[in-house]
Amino acid sequence: MIKRSKLSNSINVALLASVSAASAVSVSAYAEEESANVERIAVTGSRIQRQDMETASPVTVIDAAAIRSEGFTTVDELLQAQTSMAGAAVGSSTNNGSDGVAQVDLRGMGSQRTLVLLNGRRMVNSGSGADSSVDLNAIPVAMIARVEILKDGASAVYGSDAIAGVVNIITKKDFEGFQIDVQGGMTDKSDGENGEISALYGFNTDTGNYTFGAAYSERKGVIQSDRDWTDPGNSSTTPNGSLDGMVKDADGNWVEREEGYDFTQDSFYQTPSKRYSLFANMTQELGSDIILTGDILYTKRKSNQQLAAQPAILALDVCEAGDDPTKCFELDQDMIDAGMAPNDDGQIDYRKRMNDVGPRIYSQDTDTWRVSAGLEGSLDINTGMNWDVSYTYGNNKAETAVENSINATLMADAIYADQDAWLTGQPMTDQALLDSVAYTEKADGGNEQHVFSAGLNGELFDLDAGPVAFAIGAEYRYESGYYNPDPIIVAGEGTAAQQDPTDGNYNVISIFQEVSVPFTEKLTGEFALRFDDYSTFGNASTWKIGLTYEATDDLMIRTVAATGFRAPSVSELYGGNSGSYDYLEDPWGNEQDEQILVNYTSDEDLEPEESESYTAGLVYSPSYVDGMSLTLDYWRFKVKNAITRLDTQNGLNNCFAGDQATCELFNIGPNGDLSNLTNSLTNVGYQDTSGIDFNLAYRFDALNLDWTISNDTTYLLNFEQDGIDYTNTIDGNFGAYAQVRNNFSIKAAQDDWSVMYFNRYIGEMDDLSAGTKVDSVLYHNISASYFINDSWMLSAGVKNLTDEEPSRVSNGSDGGTVPEVYDTIGRTYFAGVTMKF
């Protein structure tokens, strides 16, 4: 039997108990294993199989029991509750522009800089097409055994995208029996219902195990205006229309527009979604120490978002003498008397919110497949070596639509043909006329991935302090993606922003190696080196050096230095032009709306991003307090040559201040003409972020109860990007970079029942746009579980027990706040039942 020090044991407890504020990890499996022989295991962040989880890199582990205790029904909700997250990762609360996807944003460095693995192997990028990140909706919670979050740069081990860290989702395996789980919830306002039903079946043979599962989940929407704290919207595009900023009053006179349109009555805080998933895992011994492993996952997602009716903003050509009046707009005397006149281009601004047609209803129908198979075995070399070969295939296809879209060209022609019908200042009732300009926008896209990998690991030779372990391997990966917008959008004839198609692919060949060297009984070094050769930009080399030092039986000190990179994605290389209506302030005061069209462009000559990361910390388990362990880690990530779009608002401000070079960079015309405002991808960006993570885990017995206490704190020291300091700020465009985030939980258990209280704290921040303070918020949650017998278990809980309102943000992305950061739906009840046979 392998002996473990007190520190070694406490590290495992700390890893298993290091979870989010509302989470607590079950450590029963760990306790059961204490008396068993410890086999070599794979740990996220290394390809070397180890006898312990003691590594130089900090890892957070969240198991299925913790996921259930807080009522999480999606992976993104689970991850965004972690204190190590920042920014504003899109998810169920993102109504505008998300296409229903859900992503992770570790350290707030961007979802594209966090690598997502499934059972240690890459997951295909997924969403609506040519995506740069994994859609976490493709992974059902029902199949998860645990989630491991590596909070350290890992490009030297896994290659591109692991700049900020790695999320490795481990699925349920080696299951025996039949289990059904049913859970659901709703808000105390009787909306936002959600539910999931899943089934798991597994059986053992003399030489293997086969596990199968299926899951169905549904989430219903919550309309923004149904929350009384919501700030009403104030769009300049109103249902009855305006001309040159003027509207008709009750007497038919042209007057200045004074009222805006409240779009919150049509938009969601929680978006509706349905998901259907099938999954399976198998392990089969083939003899001669060869094992065949495989897993398969299929998920269909049908999701919706809804926005206010299409805002039609048209630049109408004003008739001049001799023009055909059916092909231009005629200014009558009343309009001229009201001060209306064509601009320098001979056009006049017409705006109408197309409520007569109906709200924009976005829908997505996505199918995501992933199949992975591998062979592994051992060689009778030295003390024994392990080899493995694997192939992973991923495919994602999506069909998207936007109902009640408007064809701008046909609408302009309809106005020219009968302008009086569009200028009544009253709702339009001519259905045939409305139908002639409306259509359903349709698009399709997808992603495909092939990965071949082979590796060898084992022990090279012995030193006085122990064996030198190694891992070497090679990998071939092919990635492709495409996205085909609706032809009307490609032609720029819609009232929505113009967008070009995307289509491209690349491949990469990689070789990698790791070595673990015990210099002394207390000091161990970990070294990794990787070389990647891309078909697009060439090659990249990365390295990683880690040290662990067991200073005493109670204290371990650890540190890691590493380099990393991120290759440009298909959409960044081949995406073409894509329009986006961003929340911006026009310093010239020309724009009537706070949402201003920005043309986003890609670049086939982009180079990879480069990064450096450093972590240093300790793991301490005081011998005088049995069951307690704490970790303290300093971390810093620096990214240069970042693929980014520069801050558009900053560009507007600098151009307004007289910086002509900035005006040209953003295509800003004379006198603040923003009609061709452009923001191109480029390699000039950088990020520099640092902070401190602290975790306390304590298990003890008192009052005839088993107690578990966990506290997770992240203190952000600095977050700087492209010359702007975002430390402790919040904004609708960039999300939140709170200086303090804290999660606390306490659990009491006895025999068949347990009760847990957990809270989540997001500290006070500075409003980036207004310069004012945004209030801190503390969410309280409770849950309980009860085992009726070996076959039945009940659970229930309340999230946001005190119904805390989200903090107000002046430039919030929706409803006067940032829904990706704060809870916008309020107090929620959830309950579930597990039946095992």
TrEMBL record:
Keyword NADP among UniProt keywords: no
Pfam families: Plug, TonB_dep_Rec_b-barrel
Chain location of the short sequence motif TonB C-terminal box per the record: 820-837
Location in the cell: Cell outer membrane
Start and end residues of each TonB-dependent receptor plug domain: 53-166
Keywords noted in UniProt: Cell outer membrane, Membrane, Receptor, Signal, TonB box, Transmembrane, Transmembrane beta strand, Transport
Biased composition (Polar residues): 232-241
Record-annotated TonB-dependent receptor-like beta-barrel domain positions: 358-801
Superkingdom in the source lineage: Bacteria
Membrane topology: Multi-pass membrane protein
Disordered: annotated segments: 225-246
Signal peptide (UniProt feature, chain positions): 1-31
PANTHER family given in the database record: PTHR47234, TONB-DEPENDENT RECEPTOR (PTHR47234:SF2)
Sequence similarity: Belongs to the TonB-dependent receptor family.
Annotated protein name in UniProt: TonB-dependent receptor
